[in-house]
Amino acid sequence: MTTLIIAEKREAAKSMAQALSPQFTEKTGYIQGSNNLMFTWAQGHLVEIKSPEEMNKEWKEWKEWLGYTSDDS
Q1: What are phi and psi of 55, to 5 degrees?
Q2: Do the domain assignments include residue 60?
Q3: Inter-CA distances, 23 with 28, 35, 56, 71, Å
């Protein structure tokens, strides 16, 4: 069975192939690695982090003071 590893960018896929596969061959649109590994890439971000209020409406406003402001010297 082949394991497909998807990276966000081509260079990231190549770095993973170099680290995980003793020998690999660059093809059009993917990298064929040894050990049944195949690497490919997208053209940008694959996931996006939600803002706190998207996960919980109570988290929209920060209610804790951490004892520091940007005005402190």
Answers
A1: -90, -35
A2: no
A3: 17, 9, 46, 55
**Any domain includes 32:** yes
Instruction: Classify 2 as helix, strand or coil.
Output: coil
Quick check: is 25 in a domain?
yes
Domain with 19 in it:
3-44
Count how many residues are written for the chain.
73
24 - beta bridge partners? 33
Q: Which amino acid is at 33?
A: G
Q: How many domains, the chain?
A: 1
Q: What is the mean pLDDT of each run of 10 residues along the chain (73 residues)?
A: 95 97 95 96 87 89 76 59
3-state DSSP of 15-67: HHHHHHCCCEEECCCCEEECCCEEEEECCCCCCCCCCHHHHCHHHCCCCCCCC
